[in-house]
Amino acid sequence: MFLLRKITIENHGKCIIEAKFIDDEKRGNEGVFSTLILGENGTGKSFLLKTIADIFIFLDKAQIYKRKPKFHYEKFSISYFIKGNEYVIDRNSGSEIICKKDGVSIDLYDVELPTNVLAVSFMVNDKFLFIDPNQKQSNSGMYRYLGVRKTTNATYTSSVISNVMQSVVQILCDGLFKEMYMVLKALHFDSDIEITFVNNSKGKNSNVTLIKVDCSDCDMNYFVNYVINGEKLSNLIKHGIIRPSNISFYKTGEKIDFENCSSGEKHMIFAFSGILNAISENSLILIDEPEISLHPEWQIQYISLLKKVFEKYRGCHFILASHSHYLVSDLQGDTSSIVTLSKENNIWPKAELLNFDTYAWSAENIIYNVFGLRTTRNYYFESDLRKLLSMIQAEDCTDIDINKIIELTEKMKKYIYNEDDPLCAIVNQAEVFIECIQKD
Known about the structure:
By secondary structure, this protein is α+β, with helices and mostly antiparallel strands. It folds into three domains: 2-153 and 279-369, Rossmann fold (3-Layer(aba) Sandwich); 158-260, no CATH class; 379-439, no CATH class. It has helices at residues 45-64, 157-173, 177-186, 233-238, 263-278, 296-309, 325-328, 363-369, 379-392, 399-413, 423-439, and strands at 2-11, 14-20, 33-39, 75-82, 85-93, 96-101, 104-106, 117-121, 143-146, 149-151, 154-155, 192-199, 208-214, 227-228, 231-232, 242-251, 254-257, 284-288, 317-322, 336-344, 348-354. A hairpin with a 2-residue loop joins strand 5 and strand 6 (96-101). The radius of gyration is 26 Å and the shape is globular. The relative contact order is 0.14.
């Protein structure tokens, strides 16, 4: 079980961000846990995901090399649970790193880190550290970049197709047909996948092999043991004799090449196949804006699909940064948490861990109570407004009523857009009422 609990970043004596991701009572979770980070544009959601990844990259390198690696900010503190133990690591300055396991001081080299840290994004301008997965030196670390960039600052359509082909081939070689079928089913695809292989030897690219696999009904070893010219497919791939050159899916029997899929379909296949190819138990998976190009139906199902597809990878923590209220409606309180970000003094983000269950909430409820947005004719806003008006107009008022009036008044103040807003008059009336009651 891996669960990220809290991080704090300081620089030049100022707190850059302090974010708590779980309540302590949830530390015993052994399944897949999800945290959704919400906030307006510019509140630092991507910055927070990148910072989490950078801390673990730093710690991973610090355990390998004698000379401590560089970190962008002077100080950080991070705490997390893994396999029932709590680790707290403080980097105070320079090479000073203080580590504790369940409150007892330990050496940095005895700190257990998550098995993998996966950075997932379908944006060409994501903020994650780019590391080419094809570079041998990158394979030794826990961090994997699973974005669409091909270089530090560029992306190519061909690289997306190539990544999907390589991921799906490895998934099928590993016998993960059930997991791949769940993704296909969610996208309303048929259960079949067709992969085209070509001979990688010079002058032999005309030798083409098509392999069609039914993910809903296939022996686990079917793909890896598939024989081409007397050789197992797995051996031909391992030795670089053949390579995948195209991948196709089916919808109501019609063949669709990956490059002809919709942007939402490409995004889902890219993200889920990439994670499936890299995940293991006790991993941390960071996903930036998973809702990009996705139909609302897929957004609503996204987190529950994550938990179904990766169910057997016990103790993984998925942290997603999003604008979408549809993702919020799919969160179950016992295996999920919500963190909201807002700008404090318009400089650094302020994080707040929300403590309620939003599963199956309506869109209006989420927009009002989670995103903090008042919309025209919002049922929940009007309900609170009517409640406030009736309470300040009542003849009798208990202490409980007074506390509720104060709570609703403070809540309403957050939804005043300008001085001409009619809501101002109601809030002013409530404040006068509170003042009079408190004097008495």
